[in-house]
Amino acid sequence: MKIITDERCTSYLRTGHPEHPRRVAATTAFLKTQTELPVIWAGPGENVSDEIILRAHAPEVLTRLARPEDFDEDTPFHENISTFARTSVAASLEALRTARNGENVFSLMRPPGHHATRTKSMGFCYLNNIAITTLEALATGAKRVAVLDFDVHHGNGTEDILLNQRGVEFFSIHEHPSYPHTGAENAGHNCFNYPVTPGTPRLTYRAKLAHALDDLRSYRPELIAVSAGFDAYVRDPLAEGSLLAEDFYWLGESLRKLGVPFFSLLEGGYSKDLPKLIFAYLKGVEGK
Ligand SMILES: [Zn+2]
Q1: Is pLDDT above 90 for 245?
Q2: What's the structural domain count of the chain?
Q3: CA–CA separation, 113 vs 88, rounded Å?
Q4: Which domain holds residue 45?
Q5: Centroid of ligand 1 to alpha carbon of 34 (angstroms)
Q6: Among 6, 113, 221, 284, which residue's beta carbon has the most beta carbons within 10 A?
Q7: Residue 237 burial (C-beta neighbours within 10 Å; 0-12, 13-18, 19+)
Q8: 174 is a catalytic site residue
Q9: Which of 57, 78, 114, 115 is catalytic?
Q10: At 207, which CATH number?
Q11: How many angstroms does the Cα of residue 175 sit away from the middle of ligand 1?
């Protein structure tokens, strides 16, 4: 298992904000001490060009990153946030290259990306890592890419950017009604939403995940990009999900069994158990 991370992503914080550097720092520490799963550590690839980012975002998103004002009440400005966001994208692109090379890979970075829309940073997200990387995959030869988003919140930004994009289908399983209050229904010809009522029992939630995975399989993708959020966990403080660590194992295992190259990027997940949830998922991906 290759894990892509970079120390710089733990160097900024807003006091009291749940999207905290310890999410990555504690997970890195945990993965370095465990002995069950061999890990190859890697850094993000080279700096990302504006051209690659601007396939997904309007130019104003890049200029706004340099303006020292909070983006919204959830999404603070940080000094050098532009560099941090671009480094997270670089890690995502490195994950794509690694997956194409036939290796199992996880990008353990922040900031997350799936709420950032074409024109707006929001919801802890500045640049949409998964959408930028999916468009890069298409620009470099992929013909059928599936994007799976199992974060407990709807990947509204990813949907906004990939809506009706040829060569992509998007599958998002999320709590609804909940932030960001989108994703109640399918959108366009390629965005499929699987809303789950807050407080839904675990087995019902898992059946919804299985349904989405079945639909994804029917698309016959050649590559799968995964927005891996761990906030549908039963003890996550930001949502009312019901999943356990073994469900994240099952997700990783189910993806592996599809037999299609895939890469995963960290989105949400705010409980202190996050390192164990990611570990369970990675073990499923490796079939350990
Ligand atoms: Zn989330």
Answers
A1: yes
A2: 1
A3: 9
A4: 2-286
A5: 26
A6: 113
A7: exposed
A8: no
A9: 115
A10: 3.40.800.20
A11: 10
